[in-house]
Structure formats: C-alpha cells, structure tokens
Give the backbone structure.
Amino acid sequence: EDKVVQSPLSLVVHEGDTVTLNCSYEVTNFRSLLWYKQEKKAPTFLFMLTSSGIEKKSGRLSSILDKKELFSILNITATQTGDSAVYLCAVGNAGGTSYGKLTFGQGTILTVHP
Amino acid sequence: DTGVSQDPRHKITKRGQNVTFRCDPISEHNRLYWYRQTLGQGPEFLTYFQNEAQLEKSRLLSDRFSAERPKGSFSTLEIQRTEQGDSAMYLCASSWGQGFYTGELFFGEGSRLTVL
C-alpha cells in the first residue's frame, strides 16, 4: 500500500524565517509528487514534481524531488503570517487503475508568528 | 465561478440516518475523486471515477458507502446507516487525465458531516 510520511508534524516560526518541510514516500509505481496548502478549507495546489533534481519555484516557495531516496522538500523563504497553513504532500500512482489516485501524508502544520 | 462545488457544506444527522452529498466538478474534467478528512489528518482516498466509470474504491470503504456519477458530470456520495465514526469532512476533487497522465486535483470546499 502506498505510504506518505511528512515531517515535522508541526512547526512554529517567526516572520522572516526560512522553513523546510519534508516528505518521504513509498509507492509501487511512482507517477508524481504534489504539494498542497490547506487553510481551513479546500487544499490548494502548489507544485507537481515528476523528475528528480529539478527545482520548481513560485515566489518564495520552492520544491525539489529525489526519486532515488524517495523524498521531497518544500522550502519557504522569508515566511509571512499568511503562510500559516497545513502543507500536504501527496503521491500519484501509475499502476493498474490507480493512475488517477493520490495518497496524502498527514500534513505539516506551519504557524508563522509576527 | 467554475471551481468544484459541493453541497451541502454542513450536515448534522442522527446515527442511523442516511445522508447524501453532491459534487459538481470543473466542467472539462473527466476524473472525479472523493476523499475523507478528519481533524489532524491528510485526506484519505475513498473512490474515483473516470467519466461515469468507478475505477477504484478504497478497501477502507464499507458497504454503507456508495458513490455514483451517472452521466459523467456530477457525482453523489451516499452514506447509509451513519455511525459516529463517519463524522468527517468529505472532499470532492476533479482533474483532467488521459491514460497514465493526471493533472493536479482541484478540490471543492468540502461537506462537513457530524453524526450525533
């Protein structure tokens, strides 16, 4: 069964700090890894990664995937209070009829204090 | 707005009653997913459809749960004889996919179920 583990489970920082969120996974037929941000309602999409070593970047957020070591990191630089949220990591499976399915980790709760 | 919409947003019911949730996906998306999320946990996969075909159903889903997508557009998730353990947020998502390719999932706001 596919498995996604995120760490840390929670993190408290001050504005301006840089944070790194971790995601490790086990999946039978890896297709993709996705990061989502969830602020009390629906998860919103951040990144999709399919290739090792290629950094995806959007403003202060960036992410990279290591398919050999089976993990990904999400970096947020110069954090702001608006970054406070749950960050979810999910992996997609390319096998059988599972090619549409995402398996999520438990999430990392990030709290940014002013 | 052309996002994923879910109805109702909140449902309070007594144990043993049946409930039904509806999801309207983004119109051009052919894949539709149902997830369940409890406090402090990530979304847990329940089932998904490609067009009207239900392609996979979680082994965790009991026989009390059934989902349909009759015309390949909106979907319903029904829970029969609800139990207190069914209390959760039920999230619907949609995406466009072909073969092994699936784009990112777009989520609805969710339907929160409370079973008393």
Q: What stands out?
A: Chain A has a mean pLDDT of 92. The interface with chain B takes residues 4, 6, 31-32, 34, 36, 41-45, 48, 88, 90, 92, 94, 97-107 of chain A (CB under 8 Å). Chain A is about 0% helix and 60% strand.
